[in-house]
């Protein structure tokens, strides 16, 4: 839905095909990290989310090791926004629809073919649709990825966890006391009260199911609660039940001709650190402007391929940190000894910051070659004389921030790049060029250098 909104922002006709007739109502992801919050702010959507969520400046995101939230994070949004996935989906769907995306529910993709001009999608009811490009955002069991024959190497699940929403008869005091005791040795166990009066309950499964698409039974849930806590807390009236494993896989390529992959279709990993939904949103934000540029005809050679070049390593790094976290969550003596050592190291402020910046994606820096320390990084929201930076970027265009007194120019690219002169005090460089996704593409003050960099991201000059 975020990708649909990004494409509509740039005037493209977008059709979203959703297999389910209605949303599932299941909440797996529970929050948004810094970079996703920035993306929403940059599109003017954050004000829709904030009243429905809760801001947290708390540790515990790396392997549930409780350490303080670092000071002076490189962002104007130094918090995690606790908000259920159901609300995130609803708000992004509303945004896509308002932007003009055509959303078709109950439409299952069963086949596709492509040629040099476009892609033909075949639906379960026999309907065929023709498009210039197709993006598979269809989850870890992606039909699109399988139809393309894209390899999905990695490791299968070795552990499995049960997750569900249900009502609890035990008192909050009893629940808190038992959970605190169990979590001394089993970190994949817990309960959380929800606004609807139910509880979100998580408990390790007995083994790994042959088919994780089949939800666990309620009796299985109660049996595992008793096994770990000595009580099932009198759980009753389940709203929904699910299971997830620790499978870790990464698509070999994100693009095959005119078909691309994003989100869980491109990568799956354990939910440790709450990174999955956020990783997918950031994929979409990276891809949207590049795909639109390709369709509009001004994309320089290699721009669309830079989606894979930039996002594939980011996903690989997330897979690695979730693998590491899963080891630290294991109850055996060896992993627990390493966990205690990591916890000691996190008492060093620099170590704690380093790990939290990984989880929140603040540390992501794309490889744009040698240059200024800002090159390739995403610029935080800064206050300018003309307003906030992210407010100036809501049209989805590039932006030249110029403090040289107007000696620089983007003539020839004015239809793709905005130019702001006399910026403000928070920016301590002469000038910098931002891509539409907010990453710094150039830093300097020489017009010839700028002219050498503009075509790389914004194509050939016009006029």
TrEMBL record:
It holds the Pfam family Rng_hyd_C. It comes from the Bacteria. Residues 1-322 form the FAD-binding domain. SUPFAM superfamilies: FAD/NAD(P)-binding domain. Its cofactor is FAD. InterPro entries: FAD-bd (IPR002938), FAD/NAD-bd_sf (IPR036188), RIFMO-like (IPR050641). Keywords: FAD, Flavoprotein. This is FAD-dependent oxidoreductase.
